[in-house]
């Protein structure tokens, strides 16, 4: 059966094959129609986001989450049966300060996964779903907070305490702005709406909207914003741009599906030609698609 999360398979034998050891011990006792007779096969192709930790590379693909171990390249698939609290992953990010993977779901729910794979839930945002839109558009880990780009502004969360720290309404007179991406670069926080860039110094009171300045973007609808080589890059209308002295310069005109970054590498994925690395001189070198997991 095809679902939004993947394929659901019905196993009339109810043997529990492929389940954990604990599940297998009880499988023989289950009657027809038991949940143990149903298995969900998630769709793990076409990763949209990746996050590199010291131990593994994580990828979010079509609402699912998997990881590749850095040492032995063993693949783990993460879902509710392995500890997650949600079923449709939209964004992931690694927080170096707490050594945790931050996992955002379609309903605004957030999980925090430590280096041992233990998952805890951060419920604050999803509890507000009845009154506000809690769709998380992007995650940025910063020096003090982890920032969430939200339909109304920015949420600053504290992963160590698993709580919301501050809320920023950055429009004129504290108006709600649909923030698509948020980035901390040097001493400034940058927020991207559909057609504008908002920025404010981290030294200022970001709760006060008067500290936020706005400027136009070369293209509407920024697809991704990131920092690599101590430079601010964006993917806009499938082309790569770099922010230089207050202006945007097009780096690569070719159409890319997504870009991603680690401390010393910027990756760009071309749907037809595969994976590339962009160096500090803005030159491309081709990579195998498998390099997405081994070169970060």
Describe this structure in words.
The structure is a single chain. This protein is mainly beta and 296 residues long. It has helices at 21-27, 291-294; strands at 6-10, 38-42, 49-52, 56-61, 64-69, 75-78, 89-95, 100-105, 110-114, 119-122, 138-141, 146-150, 153-158, 163-168, 181-185, 188-192, 196-201, 213-216, 222-228, 231-236, 239-244, 247-252, 258-262, 265-270, 274-278, 284-287. A 4-stranded antiparallel β-sheet has the order 3-4-5-6. The protein has a 4-stranded antiparallel β-sheet with strand order 7-8-9-10, with no helix packed on it. β15 (181-185) and β16 form a beta hairpin. The protein is globular and about 45 Å long.
Radius of gyration: 21 Å
How far apart, in Å, are the first and last alpha carbons?
A: 36 Å
Tell me the helix content: under 10%
Based on Cα principal axes, name the global outline: globular
Number of strands: 26
Strand sequence of the main sheet, in spatial order?
A: 3-4-5-6
Q: Could you describe the largest sheet, including whether it forms a barrel?
A: 4 strands, antiparallel
Q: List low-pLDDT spans.
A: 1-11, 15-37, 290-296
Number of helical segments?
2
The portion of residues forming beta strands comes to over 45%
- Overall mean confidence score, pLDDT: 83
